[in-house]
Design a protein that fits this description.
Length: 843
Amino acid sequence: MNKTMMAALLLTGALTTTAQTEPIRIDLQQKGAVVSPNLFGIFFEEISHAGDGGLYAELVQNRGFEEHVLPSGMTWREGRAWAPDAMNYEHRNNRRWNIPWNLDEKKMTGWRVSGDKATVTGQVVEAAAALHQNTPHAMQLTIKKVQKGGRAVLANTGYWGIGLKAGERYDLRFYVKSSNYKGTITARLTDGTTHQSLGTATFAPKSLKGWTELTATLTAGGTAAKGELHLEFDKAGTVLVDYVSLFPQATFKGRKNGQRADVAQMLVDLHPRFMRWPGGCIVEGATYENRVKWKETLGDPMTRRGEWDLWGYRATWGMGYHEFLQFCEDLQMDAMFVNNAGMSCSVRNGDFVSSDADMEAVVQDFRDAIDYALGDPARNKWAKMRADAGHPKPFPLKYVEIGNENVGPEYVTHFNYIFKRLKAEYPQITFINTLGHTDPLLDQVPGQYMVDPHWYRNPDFFFANNHLFDDAPRTHDIYVGEYACNGGVGAGNLLAALSEAAFIMGMERNSDVVKMTSYAPLFENENRRDWPCNLIHINSSEVYGRASYYVQQMAAEHRATYNVYVSEPTTEGKAEPFRPGTIGLGSYATQCDYKDVRLTTADGQVRSVSPGAFKSQRGEWKVQGDVISQSSNEQLTMALLPGFSSDSYTLELKARKTGGMEGFFVYYGMDDSGRNGFAANIGGWNNRTTAIQPIQRGRANDVLGRRARQTVDTGRWYDVKLVVTPMSATLYVDGQETTVARPSTPTRHFCQTGYDEQSGELIVKVVNATDRPYRRSFAISSAAVVMPTGRVVTLSGNAQDENTFEQPTRLAPVESRFGKFARQFDYEFAPMSFTVMRVKVSQ
Ligand code: AHR
C-alpha cells in the first residue's frame, strides 16, 4: 500500500439507503480452496529494455560496441539477417526467417563522436587483438589534429539519457589501447542538455601499448535525467576504446553489477514469492542458435558476449544467471529458471535439434544450470563456479521450466526426453511443461509437473473468464506464467486492470489447482515499447507502476489463507443482441475457393450473391466464372459484401481449401471497416478446431460458444450454413450443427471472499467495472463477532485513465476505515473500482 495515499477517507458513499438486491451471502464455515502461498510472483524477460536500460543498473548503452553483431548463426545478405534454412518444428516447413539489418546504424547505438577545436572520426572496428575473444569489437578514434585547449570527445548518451543524482558516486571502468597517443584522457559526467560538467576524472597513462584498464569513482555534482558520459582526448593519435562501464554505487542492496535501487524496490513492493527468468520467447530464440545460453551470462561482465534479443536489440546479459539467482535470494523469493528445450520459437524460424547426441547436450545444459544453483562446490564444476563468484551456499532454485510456449507433438517428444532424465536426478525441483492446461497432448506426457498456459487478451476476455478454472482438470497444477489485458486498452488503463482483477479472483478461488501466476511483461523503458502493455514504466531516473501494478500489489497483500463461500462470485449483466452487419468470406494463411453464396432474409426472400459482389479488404481475391478465390498466404483475409446489413438471415455457401495451413472464415455482423464483427473459423487453430470468434479492432480474439474438433481437407467442397438471429448464430458444416454462438452476458461485478488466519480477518474483494456506483448488502454467517471497524482499500478512477510520468499515482490504492461492518451491512462501491474490505471476525 502506498503510504502517502493513505487518506482519512471514511465511507466510499454515505449509506443512507439500503441496497435493493438480495444480499451477497458469505459463510465462514464453508471453506473453499486453500490459497497457494506462491500465487503471486514475477516474470522477467529482456523486452522493451526491461533489463538493459531498466532493472540492470549499468548506465552506458552499447558498452562493448557489439550492438551491430548479427544474431548467432545468422548471415547478412542484402540488408537483412537470414536464419539458416531449416524445418520449423511445428509447421514442418522452411520459413526462411529474416529481418532487416542495418549494420552501420547499429554500430553507433548510444555513441557520438565530436571535436571541440579538434578533428576526429570514430568507427566501430573488429580489433586486431581483441580486449576479449567474446567481444571482438571496439571504437577506433582517429584524432587528426587538436588545437590548444581543444579535445576529441567520445560521448555516450546512456539509455535515452544517463540518470545522475547530485552527491551519488559512480564507478567508471574502461579500456584503452594505442601505439601513438601521448595525451591525457578525461572522463566527464555532463548534464547532457547544457553540457555543464558534473564531475571529472583525468588519466595520464604512461603507456597504452597493450589494452589498459582505467577506473575511477566520480561523484555527481548535480542531478540530470539526460546526462552523458564523455571521454575526452587532448592530443592527436589513433586510440581504441572498449568496454566503457558506468555504474552507480547505490545499487539495490549495494550489489556490484546489480540492479537499480528504485526499480528493484517496485518489485519488493509487489511481495513476489518467485521470479521466472530469463523469458519468454527469448529463451526459444528466433533460431536455435539465438536462444539464451545461460553459461554465456556468467563471469566478468566485460567477457560476456551478449546476444541479439529477438525483441530487436542486443542484450548484454549483464544481469545474468548468477545475478538473477542472487536477486531471488535478496528478495527472499524462489527462483524459476526457464531453459531452451532444443527448439526455437515456432512463429519465428522454429528450427530444432532431435538427434540423441543433441538432446543429451540439451539435458546436460539443464543439469549444469541446476548444479550451478544448487550443487556442492566440492563435487561439481558449475557449483564451484558459483562459489568462486562469491556464493558457496546454494541459491533458492525451486522451479525449472522446459522451454517456453512450445507446442505440438515435437515438443511432447522433447519434454518427455528431458523431463524423464531430470526428474529422476532432481526430485526436489518442480518442472514445468509449456502446454496449456486443456491441451489434449498432455495425455501423452506422463508424470507430475506443472503446466503453463498464457493469455494476452482484451478486457472482455478477462471479465468473461473469471470462471475459466472452475471446471479445469485437476490433473496438473497450473502456473499461469504470462497474462495481461493488452487489447484496446491504450498502454494499460484502469479498465484493463479491473479485468485482470476479475481474472485473478477466479484464479484465487481455484487455487487448489492454480498454484502460481505472473503478469507479463514486467517492465518497459518509456523510450522503447516492444509489447502493448507492460506493468512498470521506467526512464533514466524515474519509475512508476500502472493500475495493473496496483492490482497485483493489492492481490498479493490481501491473499487469504483459504477461500470461504460467497453466494455471488459474479453478478450477470444483460446480454446485448448481435449488431446488424454484413457478411464476408476469408481465411487464415490458407487459399480457398467459394461459390453458390445464397442469402435468405427474415421475410423468406432468397438472394443469390454473385462472386463479383464481394469486395476485397485483405488478401488476393479473384473471380473466375461462378467461383471467387483467395490465393495469398495472409492472415485474416477478407472480402465483404457491401450494402448489406442485417441481424436476421441464413447464409449458405460452398467452400473449398486449395492450399495452406487451415480452413475457411465466414464473417457475419461485420461493420463496413471490416474491423468489428464475427467470424465462423472453420478448421482454425492449425486446422484442428471450428469455433465462432468476435473480431474486435481487426483482431480475432476470444471464442463464443463451443469449440468443435474439425479438420478441413484440401480439394473438397464443404457446405457451410450460418443461421443468424439477434441472439444467436448457428453454424452447420455439411449439414451438421457444429457450434452456436450467443451474445455474451457482460459480467462486470465480481466478489471473492477468503479468511486470513494470521490477522483473523474476513477478506472481501469486489470489482465494480461499471461507470455507476454499485450498492450491495452483505450477510455474514457463522461469525460469533463481527468488529464494526475495519480497513478498506480502493483503487478507482475512470475506465480510460492511465498513470504517466507526470501523474505516476493518478491511479493508486487509497486506504480508508469503514465503521459499519456487521453481520448484515451495506456498502457502495465506487464506479470503476477494485475494493478490498478487511473485516475482523471471530467464529
Ligand atoms: O511477454 C511477451 C511474450 O509473450 C513472451 O516472450 C512470450 O512468452 C509471449 O509470447
